[in-house]
Fold this protein.
Amino acid sequence: MFDLAGKVALLTGANGGIPRATAELFRRLGAHLVLTDLDTAALDDFAASLPEGQVRIVTARMDVTQRDQVDEAVALAGREFGGIDILVTGAGLYVEQEVTAMSDDDWRLTLGVNLDGVFYACRAAMPLLRRGGSVVNIASMAGHRGSVRHAHYAACKAAVLGFTRSLVHELSPRGVRANCVSPGIIATPMTEGIMRENGAALIAATPMKRFGTPGEVASVIAFLASDAAAFVTGETIHINGGIYMD
Ligand SMILES: NC(=O)c1ccc[n+]([C@@H]2O[C@H](COP(=O)([O-])OP(=O)(O)OC[C@H]3O[C@@H](n4cnc5c(N)ncnc54)[C@H](O)[C@@H]3O)[C@@H](O)[C@H]2O)c1
């Protein structure tokens, strides 16, 4: 599909449905992997399930809300591989709450994972990103059109779009690109609840009449991360079966 041979990719939230599919695809395309998430035992099991080959896979605990843990895991990638070519910010938290029911702590937790986490990961990785490198931040359809009972999540995802476009000005002089993907409804652990409660209506509202798969997001991330997208930066690609068109 795309050639990522020898590139070093660091993923946050790498135990998640979309990030796992991305890691699997990156692995097949020849990238070395630095997989980070909260649960390192699960990450190690996942890493062990990937086919062996020329590539190296390193796992590390990274709570993206904790700046020190982010800095430490990114520094590990630097020590192990001498630099980073691809950063994918996959960590995410999707809590259903109306605004009037949101405590300050609820608000801050969602912002901590979905927004601070992106900032911390990008800030730490930027000095290590090599020329030709690429940042792919996972935003969401929620950031474009809002999300019922997920105002904090939607606010973060909209902010990630603006943050990523701003990164372009700092990264372009160094030969690094930054883009977003904005998935619609993708079948992962994150969306099990809304699929159960509202799945039929969501499918009916989707022109392609189905949910997306993690692999269908991973392939777009791989495109953006690869040299096939060498002149694409500051862009957002929607992956949603037509349920939302900009
Ligand atoms: N599934 C969808 O429909 C959908 C749609 C739009 C955007 N997204 C985004 O895609 C990304 C991946 O989501 P997914 O659907 O694979 O969900 P998922 O729930 O399967 O994965 C999310 C991952 O983030 C990790 N995580 C949560 N809090 C963390 C923290 N503090 N530090 C580090 N990791 C943490 C979890 O452990 C989990 O592995 C998220 O950013 C999500 O917002 C998903």
